[in-house]
Amino acid sequence: RDITDRKAADDALRKSEARLRVALEVANLGTWDRTPEGEGDWDLRCRAIFGFSPDEPLTFDDFRERIHPEDLPGVDARLAAAFDPASDGTYVSEYRVVWPVGSVRWVATRGLVLFEGDGEQRRPVRFVGTAQDVTERHLAAEALEESESRYKQLVENSQELIYRADLSGVFTYANAVATHRTGYAEADLLGMPFWDLVDEEHRADVTEYYARQLAERVPTTYLEFPIRTARDEVLWIGQNVQLLEEDGQPVGVQAVARDVTERRHVMDELVAARETAERASRAREEFLANMSHE
What we know:
By secondary structure, the protein is α+β, with helices and mostly antiparallel strands. It has helices at about 1-25, 45-50, 60-65, 70-85, 135-155, 175-180, 185-190, 200-215, 260-294; strands spanning about 30-35, 40, 90-100, 105-115, 125-135, 160-165, 170-175, 220-230, 235-245, 250-260. The strands form 2 sheets. The chain has a 5-stranded antiparallel β-sheet with strand order 2-1-5-4-3, with helices on both faces. Strand 9 (about 235-245) and strand 10 form a beta hairpin. The chain is rod-shaped and about 125 Å long. The relative contact order is 0.07.
């Protein structure tokens, strides 16, 4: 009976260890198990994350020397807090590691200090944990932040009206040009339905046009129409509207609009001039026709 129970326990332990190894490999985690004095074991993956060879003898001081000087004080403070007998021993830290070749890697570490004894006799005896290389995540985050910064700078310095609105047409963002051209302060423009700006004579047609874009899921559209500013001036804009989607569902629109008032005035003048010329031509033809009959 004892032999059977021991064999079952050994099998369960081996299965548990196998599952742990698979989990560590999938998550690309390295592990350590050391004493408070810094002696211990660091697996091959943990060594590789910090830029060490598989077989060189190591202590925690060797790992500590690889931590970026700017991040070291924070790491030391979090370690001291975890080793405090009054704590629960939890340790979480993310920092840069400098390899001997000079390359910098980001490492996320999580650990647990194990204590023995109670009260004033409570003391740390082991420190176990995991390390993960998260360099790619940091680079992606930095690239995204840089991209967003460039986009924001581009939008704010653009000479065009740029805004976003939700599905009900309410402004959720407007750049400085949009607030300047419409004459509304940002606080007044945000939360205002876009349709309130459209000149009343054209409002129904414009509303129908964009309702159709939403209903038919048209990715981008272009339309010119007049808006009425806070100064009660009529401003013609030509705008490209892009449908914004998340998880395949529309969530709003983004628009880039340009002031085309001057061009519309020129077009109106050309149309008027053409109509005048056509009327003069008809009058001349009628005059000549009348003269020929006489």
